[in-house]
Amino acid sequence: MNILAIDYGTKRLGLAWSDTTLGVILPFGTIEGDTLPRKITALVNVLKRERVDKLVVGYPLSADGKEGKNTERVQKFVFELQKQISIPIDYHDERFSSYGADAMGDGVTRDERSAMFILEGYLEKIKRR
């Protein structure tokens, strides 16, 4: 199964990809966009080209687990995206993903590393089920 993870940001989307049969997580670039429709259009093109089976979107909560403005932005993004795709979308708690991304080191953008961290956590969670 091809899974794409998204670290949503107001300026760009960080992407990470995994094929669950291979058991690897790879950085998959970023999508720049100054508007939500531009980000969604670019993402839909990636999803079609790469034949993604599932999306995992980082769900931003505060350290104490509460929703805030960033949570609302992500919810709006997913709501608008679902109008254009039929791919299943799961959320994954992205608390501390930036710290995890920073611990990964260099080589790819922080946005990609954050998406990788989100995807790693998601895959670990579904393994435990």
Automatic annotation (TrEMBL):
Pfam family, one: RuvX
Enzyme class: hydrolase
Cited InterPro entries: RNaseH-like_sf (IPR012337), YqgF (IPR005227), YqgF/RNaseH-like_dom (IPR006641), YqgF/RNaseH-like_dom_sf (IPR037027)
Cellular component per GO, a single term: cytosol
Keywords recorded for this protein, A-Z: Cytoplasm, Hydrolase, Nuclease, Ribosome biogenesis
A biological-process GO annotation: rRNA 5'-end processing
Entry EC number(s): 3.1.-.-
Localisation: Cytoplasm
Described function: Could be a nuclease involved in processing of the 5'-end of pre-16S rRNA.
Protein name: Putative pre-16S rRNA nuclease
Organism of this sequence: Candidatus Magasanikbacteria bacterium RIFCSPHIGHO2_02_FULL_45_10
